[in-house]
Amino acid sequence: MINNAKYLFVLAGTAFALSAQAQLRVEISGVGSNQIPVAIGPCANEAAAPARISEIIKADLTRSGMFKIIDAGATTNLMQLDATSWKARGADAFAACSVTPLGNGTFDVQYRLLSTGAGNDLSAIKTQVPNQYGRLAAHKIADDIYEKLTGIKGIFSTRIAYVAQQGKQYRLEVADADGENIIPALVSTEPIISPAWSPDGTKVAYVSFEQRKPVVYVQNLVTRQRTVIANEKGNNSAPAWSPDGSKLAVALSKTGNTQIFIANADGSGLRRLTTGTTIDTEPQFSHDGQHVYFTSDRSGGPQIYRMSVNGGEAQRITFGSTYNISPRISADGKTLAYISRRDGNFQVFVLDLESRQEQRLSDTTSDDSPSFAPNGKYILYATQNGGRRSLAVASTDGRVKQRLSIQAGNIKEPTWGPFMK
């Protein structure tokens, strides 16, 4: 159950203490249609656990907008559960858990999810968890409930990365999807922009100005080792990983106007993809790695195009506005997210690439940097909030919205990490 813990928390030993002002606060508005009622009570012996397992589970499910939580009493024996009695109270499922400290820096977590109609097990997990991974264990249980009741993989145990700016200090930070467990990956007095997760979740590519110019780096989150990927003449920007992690697309101005290049993941084998006199930037690989989406002004204003990784003609994708930028592709390749300017507002839109149906997701007016959750059901983006930059999340059906903010400083340039294997 906790196979990915090595990668998610290895930075914790080197993290510096963050002030209370730097903690993210989550606010939720809107709910999904046809919420699933689930009865959840406190874990038996929960006070002995290093984290409030049941509270984290309930907060995760509530934040998704997909569930109506019904409070249930604590259960002392997971083998003797009467889930059918909760059907009369309106619950479709009943989740129960228990915690047992083992005295060696670990604890046992047991969890069962039952159908209230048939009374049968939908899922059951028993696992031994190191104390420092208590929150991760709770997120994993929430993921399991989400998947068993919706048929869609949960994203509560995934991570996000973003840039936090306070005064003249910039921090590239990694956090749980709920904004907790913030860990700094890089601290600098120079700007940091465009972080992008590797497909295996162990590395982040980004642009740093510490050499007094934009340079593309890849940083290993396990070893903290950094590799320069692109430090060519002019600007080096907008790194994006191929789906298999073997390559990076970047935007370089080494030839004069900014163009798209592709390099191996270690920076070798750099080759030019786009050619011409226009500005081509913000590359993103397609879900199968066979195409690159990018922003170009070749039609007179910024629009999103797609080109084969082998070159050739570029196909224009966006038409709904005279200004469309920052393409992002869902994991299944069916949906394009981007920022569109309409009536003077910069907002998050999604486009169904088959039906060509377009939908606005955000109700804010100064958005940027959209990023899909790995299950494709939510989009993380940056926006303006009370004079500061903050993060927001919207479900791809537009019904559920969250806002993540800090009391001081700005947070921006978000990217949602992958599922961990």
From TrEMBL:
Signal peptide positions (record): 1-22
GO BP annotations, alphabetical order: cell division; protein import
Keyword Cell division: yes
Subcellular localization: Periplasm
Cellular component per GO, a single term: periplasmic space
One Pfam family recorded for the sequence: TolB_N
Keywords, alphabetical: Cell cycle, Cell division, Periplasm, Signal
Superkingdom to which the source organism belongs: Bacteria
Domain TolB N-terminal: 24-120
NCBIfam families, per database record: propeller_TolB (TIGR02800)
Protein function: Part of the Tol-Pal system, which plays a role in outer membrane invagination during cell division and is important for maintaining outer membrane integrity.
Subunit note: The Tol-Pal system is composed of five core proteins: the inner membrane proteins TolA, TolQ and TolR, the periplasmic protein TolB and the outer membrane protein Pal. They form a network linking the inner and outer membranes and the peptidoglycan layer.
Family: Belongs to the TolB family.
Stated name of the protein: Tol-Pal system protein TolB
Originating organism: Pseudoduganella guangdongensis
Gene name linked to the record: tolB
